[in-house]
Each structure stands twice: as structure tokens, then as C-alpha cells.
Design brief:
This protein is of the alpha/beta class and 444 residues long. The protein has three domains: 74 residues, Rossmann fold, CATH 3.40.50; 198 residues, UDP-N-acetylmuramoyl-L-alanine:D-glutamate ligase (3-Layer(aba) Sandwich), CATH 3.40.1190; 148 residues, Mur ligase, C-terminal domain (Protein-Tyrosine Phosphatase, Chain A). 33% of the residues lie in helices and 20% in strands. It contains 14 helices and 20 strands. A hairpin with a 5-residue loop joins strand 13 and strand 14. The protein starts with a helix and ends with a helix.
Length: 444
């Protein structure tokens, strides 16, 4: 939402907004553009008939006083995806959907197009190098990260159904958002709707390694063109991951992990569909450094490397830890996972995390009791979590200070990888600083 506000501001529109809390980096980016509200909270007196349009975020509540005021004044209201579609109705729309890899795959496509000199707009959940998350211009293509979540409190339809894509990608399906989709069957229903919405002239690119997704595609019998994909062939030599083109030329990559090789394979199919060559793709993808907070290199010392990853759902956590183990096969891996979302803290969902941290040498889970209270969920114990993760050696902590102390009490070796995984903030812990302290303790 904040990236959209900045994009509209830079196109010359008068933009304002509100929220109950504004975190970094949104706060700094809005402040830099002069768009940061003077104070947080809701100001119904600020809503007046001179406003042309209100864009409603999915987290706004139906009893929001500003929303109620806007309705009383008959001001036009659109959900985020409705507004994005209006901006892109004349473009070729590429939508990347799925339970994991959406941001990275959307970013890969956007990056290759940019490196190939092809103008393209985007709406992605993170910055991609120097590319901002939201770009709206006169380009004839737009890359959209497609979310299965609800559009707004006034519109329970999945976001991606609003985009009417000509090219769709589904990266895989793994149950998430339990607060909205209480069962696995209810979770996959939006993907079924997306598949069934595609027409004869549309294309669906889907991961054939996901058995449930393949079943869903076959059951749906879509009218569109179907392009299955798998893991892009790769090799690892001394920790360097490389691709090889049809002529035998090698292209070293900055990203790693089987899940990223699947993301690359999906991106390649999209790039080909958009009319670019194999050479365009391989030349562009080798400089892709990853999306913000997606296996982002946070710290690198002589003896310790630290990564930050947005992983929080079970499939994402397992793929991330496995990717780190594959790249650093002989390392002492410390995996720190924050349970932050409603699903990840729910005892009915937690069994999905079985063996998710298996590839790590040290397994640490952090959660905030305050977050449990806010989400009205029952308390958790170390014994419960050990059982859910199927890890008798699991360490559990409930504060940032305690987590830092726990890390300092370990005896890290001279080839250590510290992996932070969360969609939250680890109680405000300075992750880079903590990584540097651990490096110094190894040296010492």
C-alpha cells in the first residue's frame, strides 16, 4: 500500500493515507516523499467529498471510522487489486501466484526484462535491487505478484482474480492463512477459481513437481494453454551455483536453493512467452541478487555468514533451511525461526512444521507471548513445540534479549551460518549486530 502511494504521488496525484501502525521501511520511505501522516490512527474528519478515490487495504476492518465516513459521503472506494487492474487494463498482465516464491519469481521476471531493456511495470511485495516494488508507467507489460488472500473487508474475493492475467504462474500450493482458510480444501479453492477463470488465449505456467497442484490443474480441465515446469538444471562448484545454456555456456548465479531453481524455471517460461530469447534470460538472470529479505545476505565475516529470509510458512521454512544446507554442506547451521502469524502460532496448524528445521545443527524458535494474546491464541510450551517440529533438540525463547543470550551461549565453529527466518521483527533485535558479535566470539 505504501509503495502504491509513492507511485501515485510520483505520477502527480495528491495522495494521503492512514494506518494504526507504520513500520520500517514504510515509515522512512513515506517520510522521504512527504507522505508520512502526522500521526497514526483513524481521522474520519479528514475524509471529505473532495476526495476522488479511496483505496482500501485488506487489513482495514469493516467498522473502520474512516471507511464508514467515506461510505456516508458516497466517495468511490476500490480495493488494492481493483485499483491496480484499472491502471493496467490495457497492458499484458503477468500474474505470479502460489503459496511460496511469488515475490522472488515476480522479481526475477522484472529483473530480466529490465536487464534486457524491455519497459515493464510491476507490483511486487519487495524491492528487487534498485527496482522499487511498485512501478506504474506507460509500459505495455506489468508483472503482478498475485495473492490468494481477501481483497478487502468489503470484497472477500481473492486478490488475483481481479487482475485477469493473460499469463499466469502458480508456483505451488501449501496451506497457509488459517485465519481465513480454516481447511486445506478451502485454501486451494481460490487457486481453482483462478485456473477456471483463464480462457483459450491465456497461458498457465505451473510447477509439475507439486503433486497437489498437478491434480488441481487436471481436475479443473482449463481451457488455457498449459506449460508445466520443473527444477531448472544447475550445478554447484565450490559453493557457486551455475546454469548452462543450450550452447554450453555457463552463467554463475547469485541465488541458490532448489526452490530458486524452480523459480528460475517459471521465470524462464514467462520470459519466453513474452518473446525474449534464451540468451536474454540467462544473461539477465545471472545478475539477479534476490528480493529484499529473501535469503538476503545480512552479514559476512571470515568465519560466519548470516542470512535473513521472509520464510514463515512450513514449506518456506523447510525450503530455506535446505537451500542453506545445500550451499554450505559442511557449515554449522544455526536456524532461528520466529513464529509470528496466526497460522504459525495456532496449535491446529503447528503440526505442519514437522521436520521443517531438520537440516539445521541448532534449531531455535522465538515467539512473543504478547502476540499470542493479541491473536487470542493459547499459550505454547517448549515441549509442545518440540513435538510439533519433531525436534527434541529444539530451543525455545520468548524475548529478543533471551534469544541473543541463547546465541551467545552456543559454541559456534569457524564455518558457521546464522539463518534468521521471520515475517516479524524478532522483538526488535539487531540481527546484523548480533551476527557480528557472534563472529567476534568465534575469532576470540
Amino acid at each position: 500500500m505504501h509503495s502504491l502511494a509513492i507511485a501515485m504521488h510520483e505520477k502527480g496525484h495528491v495522495v494521503s493515507g492512514s494506518d494504526d501502525e507504520i513500520y520500517e521501511p514504510s515509515r522512512s520511505r513515506l517520510h522521504q516523499k512527504g507522505l508520512l501522516p502526522e500521526k497514526t490512527g483513524w481521522r474520519p474528519d479528514f475524509i471529505d467529498p473532495s476526495m476522488d478515490l479511496i483505496v482500501l487495504g485488506m487489513h482495514a476492518r469493516s467498522d473502520n471510522p474512516e471507511l464508514i465516513k467515506a461510505k456516508s459521503l458516497n466517495i468511490r472506494i476500490q480495493s488494492f487489486p481493483e485499483f491496480i487492474y484499472d491502471l493496467s487494463a490495457s497492458k499484458i498482465r503477468v500474474v505470479v501466484a502460489g503459496s511460496h516464491g511469488k515475490t522472488t519469481t515476480s522479481g526475477m521476471i522484472s529483473h530480466v526484462l529490465h536487464e534486457s531493456g524491455i519497459p515493464a511495470d510491476r507490483m511486487i511485495g519487495a524491492s528487487i535491487g534498485a527496482l522499487v516494488p511498485v512501478e506504474i508507467s506507460d509500459a505495455g507489460i506489468i508483472i503482478l505478484e498475485g495473492d490468494e488472500y481477501l481483497s478487502s473487508p468489503d470484497d472477500p474475493r481473492p486478490k488475483f482474480l481481479h487482475y485477469h492475467p493473460q499469463i499466469s504462474v502458480i508456483t505451488g500450493i501449501a496451506w497457509d492463512h488459517m485465519n481465513v482458510f480454516p481447511t486445506y480444501q478451502s485454501y486451494i479453492e481460490p487457486f481453482r477459481q483462478l485456473i477456471n477463470s483463464l480462457g483459450n488465449d491465456d497461458t498457465l505456467i505451473y510447477c509439475q513437481d507439486d503433486a497437489d497442484l498437478v491434480t488441481l490443474v487436471n481436475e479443473s480441465s482449463p481451457a488455457c494453454v498449459l506449460i508445466p515446469y520443473s527444477i531448472q538444471p544447475y550445478e554447484i562448484d565450490h559453493g557457486i551455483v551455475s546454469l548452462t545454456d543450450s550452447e554450453g555456456e555457463k552463467y554463475p548465479l547469485k541465488v541458490f536453493g532448489i526452490h530458486n531453481m524452480q523459480n528460475i524455471a517459471a521465470s524462464y517460461q514467462v520470459i519466453k512467452k513474452l518473446g525474449l530469447t534464451e540468451h536474454n534470460f540467462y544473461k539477465g538472470i545471472q545478475s539477479f541478487g534476490g528480493a529484499n529479505k529473501r535469503l538476503e545476505l545480512l552479514y559476512k565475516g571470515d568465519h560466519l555468514i548470516s542470512y535473513l529470509d521472509f520464510a514463515h510458512a512450513p514449506s518456506k521454512v523447510k525450503a530455506t533451511v535446505h537451500a542453506v544446507r545445500e550451499k554450505h554442506p559442511d557449515a554449522y547451521i544455526i536456524a532461528c525461526l520466529e513464529l509470528h502469524t496466526f497460522s504459525s502460532l495456532n496449535p491446529d496448524f503447528l503440526p505442519q512444521y514437522k521436520n521443517a528445521l531438520h537440516d539445521a545443527d541448532e534449531k531455535i524458535v522465538y515467539y512473543s507471548p504478547h502476540t499470542l494474546q493479541i491473536k487470542k491464541l493459547p499459550d505454547l510450551s517448549s515441549g509442545q513445540l518440540s513435538g510439533y517440529f519433531n525436534a527434541n533438540d529444539l530451543k525455545v525463547t520468548t524475548s529478543g534479549a533471551e534469544l541473543e543470550g541463547m546465541l551467545n551461549s552456543l559454541a559456534p565453529k569457524k564455518n558457521t551460518v546464522l539463518l534468521w527466518m521471520s515475517s516479524g521483527r524478532f522483538d526488535g533485535l539487531d540481527l546484523g549486530g548480533t551476527s557480528e558479535k557472534m563472529e567476534k566470539s568465534i575469532v576470540g
